[in-house]
Amino acid sequence: MNTAKSYFKSKKKNQAIPTNISPAQAAFLRKQRNTRLQIRGIQWLIFIVFLILWEITAHYEIINSFIFCSPSVIAKCFWEMLQGGTLFKHIGITLLETIISFAIVILGSIFIAILLWWNPKLSKIVEPYMVILNSLPKSALAPILIVWLGANYKTIIVCAISVAVFGSILNIYTGFVTVESDKLKLIQTLGGTRLDCLRLVVIPASLENILSVMKVNIGLCLVGVIIGEFLAARAGLGYLIIYGSQVFTCVRK
Amino acid sequence: MQPILELCNVGYTYHTTAGETVALKDISFSVNPGEFISIVGPSGCGKSTLLNIIAGLLPLSQGELLINGMSRDDYKEPVGYMLQKDHLLEWRTIYRNITLGLEIQKKLTEDAKRNIDSMLKTYGLDDFRNSYPRHLSGGMRQRAALIRTLALSPELLLLDEPFSALDYQTRLNVADDIGNIIKQQGISTILVTHDLSEAISMADRVFVLSARPGTLKAEFPIDLSVTPRTPRTSRNAPEFRNYFNAIWKEVDNEHS
Ligand SMILES: Nc1ncnc2c1ncn2[C@@H]1O[C@H](COP(=O)(O)OP(=O)(O)OP(=O)(O)O)[C@@H](O)[C@H]1O
Ligand SMILES: [Mg+2]
Question: Which range (A11-15, A247-251, B37-41, B205-209) has the least confidence?
């Protein structure tokens, strides 16, 4: 298990290999670095091969280029929209909404998970509701939100939060309660309170889990924002998608 | 001389939805300062329950318990408690694991730090103070856990099968190390173990608990004619076998 700090540290890559180490250690480090480079290389390769295949099959009409478009046409369209400056505006808005809802989701669900951990009775009471709320199709809520909050950014952010927050609470809370109970007993034997258990064991032991919940949630928030924008936006990527699909252009010509 | 620990008719019953389990009944004994007590008994007879009550992790529901003449609530000093696994926190260095208890108690003074430094040196962990637990061997981890416990300078130390996670060789060595450390610091200790040799080699007295509900069934004062008496030399004492056989008989009765 790593702390967040060492987690990020381990991602620091391609550092020069220090000279004051044994040949075997140097060989080990070199091998590690080669593996890393290999993985990066193959990742890029897959991406490039995919683009090339797409372009070729579209060009020779092996796939329907009207439906699937092609990378070169998309790139051209992208370039034009960039020059018009509109794309940046849309991306920026979607990004901002995603980040805001993501921050609210993470902070909120950590807070609520702590409350539930602190009070086992409360967690028992709300558990079935959490599961129901989590499995609710959130896009069905969107019309209600529009009527309630109006067709604006508030609706979009609430929509994104509703997509991500319940699963996030459940995951973080599950991480909290699966911390080895003997570790909590240890804190007690050292004279610690429940707050000590929380800050010294539960949270540090859950950091990795929280990080992985965050990774999932940034995606879910984006999905939520786009759903919201489908219905309630004058701008943003979701708006662009809806606009594009309604005028039946996969690429704006 | 006032005993460090006195139990009088202590009992404990677990209540669950499946029913109630009487784990302990009418346990009475006392421990003198500096004394080392080993407790043996069949699995599930309530040994861990007993230590949990003494440590204050379980409430005292039946009987009386005095530590240094004070009730459990009045006794404010920490009671050292070492569990079967070392439970070092993987995200803290060895040093920060050792200071954990002092941090919680807000007692991380310069004096305490000096004390830890000298213990790290004495017990061969000084080079590993900034390592993470995963880089240490099982024996070293267990010693680190002991230093963490001793750093709070407890008057009373409870050990619940502290060596059972170790392989046999390491176990003998660590038991010897830890036995000597405890003797040298003069800390009153209660050790729970399944290993009769270990119980005899370390103890001044061995208690045998009966099968559930656990009662105090027999008590063996251990008097071995070896000097210096350490866990290692004890095993070679001429009387060792006799104690072993006598205690074995008591415990074996419980199993059948
Ligand atoms: N939390 C609990 N709830 C209900 N019953 C329990 C609980 N903990 C222990 N018991 C019961 O109490 C009895 C004594 O348990 P305890 O853990 O003290 O035994 P032990 O002597 O330490 O056993 P072992 O040698 O296997 O460690 C056991 O029979 C067990 O089933
Ligand atoms: Mg036990």
Answer: A11-15
Q: Does A189 touch chain B (CB under 8 A)?
A: yes
Pocket test for ligand 1, best of B40, B49, B163, B193 (most atoms within 8 A of CB): B49
Among the bound ligands, name the one nearest to the CA of residue B20: 1
CB within 8 Å: B104 and A204: no
The CB density around residue A110, as the number of other CB atoms within 10 Å, is 19
Distance between CA atoms of residues B137 and B133, nearest Å: 8
Q: Which residues of chain B have pLDDT under 70?
A: 254-256
Q: Which residues have a beta carbon within 5 Å of ligand 2, which is an ion?
A: B 48
Tens digits of per-residue pLDDT, B150-181?
888 888 999 998 888 778 887 888 888 888 88
| Nearest chain A CA: its distance from B234 CA (Å) | 31
Q: Judge whether A180 is closer than 8 Å to chain B, CB to CB.
A: yes
3-state secondary structure of B36: strand
List all residues whose CB is within 6 A of at least one atom of ligand 1: B 14, 16, 21, 23, 43-49, 212
| Class of domain A84-247 (CATH, top level) | mainly alpha
Using a 10 angstrom Cβ sphere, with 0-12 exposed, 13-18 middle and 19 or more buried, the burial of residue A137 is: exposed
SS3 of B62, please? strand
Distance (angstroms) between ligand 1 centre and the Cα of A9 equals 43
State the pLDDT at residue A37.
Answer: 95
pTM for the full predicted model: 0.79
Distance (Å, rounded) from C-alpha A66 to C-alpha B32? 91
- Asked if the Cβ–Cβ distance from B57 to A189 is below 8 Å, we say yes
What φ, ψ does residue B171 adopt, rounded to 5°? Answer: -60, -45
* B154, B4 contact by CB (below 8 A): no
Q: How many helices (H) and strands (E) does chain B have?
A: 9, 10
Cβ B105–A190 below 8 Å, yes or no?
yes
